[in-house]
């Protein structure tokens, strides 16, 4: 296998572990601490998860663990979108298993959860794992988005687990995949199966976190990769001084990625979907806010700038949210009628007749190119694929029109020329940063310890992440503890709560405190490419989000953030009606 | 000034110099070697450049240079698009000047060549230069695209140079800017001015190179940044196994960037404009070639892949070239009539009546969204802005239609889902790689040595670049030596010849030898982010283009390239009629 120089070099990196996990295995004991309850809907969840509900949070500490060396057969699944570090979770799991007992075996299910259903798997051995240590991607066994939900799927999974005589299955995934892991653990126990199920918190989106899970893996590397690109574009904007760059960032509903990138790069504007929803800001208000910043910068002869836009934005803008919901409902019942329409003009007429008046008007204001994106590429449920909508182009179009109006009214004298970008796939498979390499390896090793210690229905948990790795705390959290009941596709289901950006949280507040300055006074930071070697501040820093949430001081170069000065209003602040900072509603409610 | 951790760290990097330039200045002598001539049109150029034509190529070697410590006043200009390392050129120039005489002064012209015309400048001092060492961007003094061409502009420049008592001006720019530098040198001598003019070869596009200039600066960093992203996307494609990514890469006319990125990442397809022109491939043939690769991969159940597309592609496809030329001609004479048209439908009708029949048909086959891009955003001359055309989307649209036809005919059984990307602004202002940091600093220092040694009309030249920096050869090349006469905007002008990809050159041949394998057998390489610290093979490798052109063996990790095996045909090869490998015509002819 021919590999790049960096990949060859990264093979030699030794991921750091929490101190306790470097001890002799039989001296690492799991200590629990009382019953737990779910974040909401306790009675319903207790009934649904009669076997696994209420278990204690556990931490690994010095003690006795005599059974830890037993021979094991473990399966591992990569579920959902790629996140840097997935291979290291498997490497940590593998090394733990083999350290426990060299005759233990690790099997990788191929192509995601469907591998379990279809009993498609391959044993992972030394040679293979060594080719994937500290690398990005999920290509060691592939990933997939199949959900194990139906009775047939669960029965097939039980069948595979039985046939393979699996002691445990590790599911590496986001909130949905870990909800599935919780269900599987419960079903396995109901079926009298010995197979334990352990989850690992993965997602670049950063929306799988709570008191016990400080961050999901991959968020660190992905945001650093996007911040590299944003910084490069900022420097370009500040050199050429003639373009506004509208940059959309992956992240699904939550704006964690956009917020983290803003903290790393100090752009002129960063929209935060959760704030826009809380303030009920319309597209018009968002546009006005952006234009006021552009006009203020033009006054200083700075006809350039950078605007960050979270992928999920349109779902949080009131009138767009309604439009999307109406389109989804309409397509669910009249898809055939719609699909028979000849062209966009016919579709537009049909929508005008079938949408509410307000939504029909909203739809009519969209540029044709964008409007088409609301109608094409619907997902298997017939839903609009929000991630395919070029929000960045929509905003450019609206801003451009508004600036022309302002120019006519003598309120804007600048020149407006723009470029649009969308960053997502660029960061999901980067070589994991040292942080993610260490964190993932530790999560994998901890998953092994949870298995060897007899737990099921747990999420592998490594905490205290702003401290050096040896001070990290390894343990497990019952999956049910993070769950509540939510409406999904017409029925109430147990799910792990998605964490959106909290408007009273420290990361958002740090951003809000500085953004008015950043909007008008060019304050760009250029993080540059992720470094794997060098001094700690260059190659071993966690995200700003984590540092702010955990209370460690310093940003970027470890210096104090620049004090915010009063200045012309930043986009969101300028256009919002109220200064709402209370906690926003969670997604799916 | 708050800066990122990496920026702080890079301040401490000491760029490497050719050994000779570390000697005492008065022991570094310029040795010339006989008269030179331009690459073509010798008589015309000799007449146009009577003062500066025919000077010798010079090299700095051990000797005597007693005048090197004289006090100097030097101006520097950043011209055109950003390229990583521009700040280091200025740092090398600055350090040379100050080493020569601490009382010498360096002035930066603000906002590009217009700074010279308008006498807008600032002195560069220690504090300022130290804030920009080893950083990306051109923000230290800004850049611009003004050309110094008209009599008024030249007179104004002479005036500024006189008023500022400049001993020399250094112009950091691409082929056009250095053509201007040559003209300025000649005009200054004609005007009896002492001000020398030295150029520095800048452009990420890689098209400013020849026997004496091995590479332009910035190409190394930009291609490594794009290759990082392409590699990440390849790994994502290979993990998710469900998307085809169409990636357009900056680079203007030449395909050097696409080719270099292909050598670094081994994608399934990389289109090379120069080959497409040589083979006279139509859009239909290009599409067929891509589809045959997609179908071949689908046979192996690999419904994913990565395709690289050079920015300038459409200009090299015969029917598109004609269409663009006709549109440009039409707009030059009938812009007013066209601009009065109400909407796209009216524009289409008008074009149908005014274009040749062939071009009207070509235009009609374009997807509406793309067709509009041919009509909007024309440059100041009324020309179609080729870089604004989303060629990547055009190809997706054509490929998608063709695959549907093939599926109907039973010739394609796969699933096709795609994403498009355009990388350009992401790489122009990255922190320069160690190579570019060293190379640029050396170019700047060499520019000072040329000034101190009394040369004018020269391009700073640092050669032998695949050897360690201390073995690099520093010197100067007369700008006229690289020039020929070309038709530009209706009249014949002296210009520096643009270097396009040579189809009989080693980089293209290395690609051509392997591409049929890469097309069908997934052979991705993942270069990862640029590293600034670590072992040489990770952080001190020049581009594959340079290594192949200079004959040094090895690629990527320093291993041998995988041997090409016969396989299903690669895109270009599959669809091309003849196996043309002769040298293609140069641009502008």
Automatic annotation (TrEMBL), chains A, B:
Q: Which GO terms describe its molecular function?
A: 6-phosphofructokinase activity; ATP binding; diphosphate-fructose-6-phosphate 1-phosphotransferase activity; metal ion binding
**Which of this chain's residues are annotated to bind substrate?**
203-205, 242-243, 250-252, 311, 425-428
The entry's localization annotation reads: Cytoplasm
**Low complexity composition bias: which ranges?**
569-578
Q: Which residues form the Phosphofructokinase domain?
A: 73-315
| Binding-site residues for Mg(2+), renumbered to this chain | 175
GO BP terms: namely: fructose 6-phosphate metabolic process; response to glucose
What are the record keywords, sorted? Cytoplasm, Glycolysis, Kinase, Magnesium, Metal-binding, Transferase
Top-rank taxon: Bacteria
| Biological pathway | Carbohydrate degradation; glycolysis; D-glyceraldehyde 3-phosphate and glycerone phosphate from D-glucose: step 3/4
Where is diphosphate bound in this sequence? 81
Task: List the residue(s) that the UniProt entry marks as the site Important for catalytic activity and substrate specificity.
Answer: 176
Record: active site: 205 (proton acceptor)
Stored InterPro entries:
ATP_PFK, PfpB_PPi_PFK, Phosphofructokinase_dom, PKF_sf
- At what residues does the UniProt record annotate the site feature described as Important for catalytic activity? 202
Question: Which is a Gene Ontology cellular component entry for this protein?
Answer: cytosol
* Description of how activity is regulated: Non-allosteric.
Homology family: Belongs to the phosphofructokinase type A (PFKA) family. PPi-dependent PFK group II subfamily. Clade 'Long' sub-subfamily.
Please give the function described in this protein's UniProt entry: Catalyzes the phosphorylation of D-fructose 6-phosphate, the first committing step of glycolysis. Uses inorganic phosphate (PPi) as phosphoryl donor instead of ATP like common ATP-dependent phosphofructokinases (ATP-PFKs), which renders the reaction reversible, and can thus function both in glycolysis and gluconeogenesis. Consistently, PPi-PFK can replace the enzymes of both the forward (ATP-PFK) and reverse (fructose-bisphosphatase (FBPase)) reactions.
Could you tell me what this protein is called?
Answer: Pyrophosphate--fructose 6-phosphate 1-phosphotransferase
Species name for this entry?
Candidatus Avitreponema avistercoris
Q: Which gene encodes it?
A: pfp
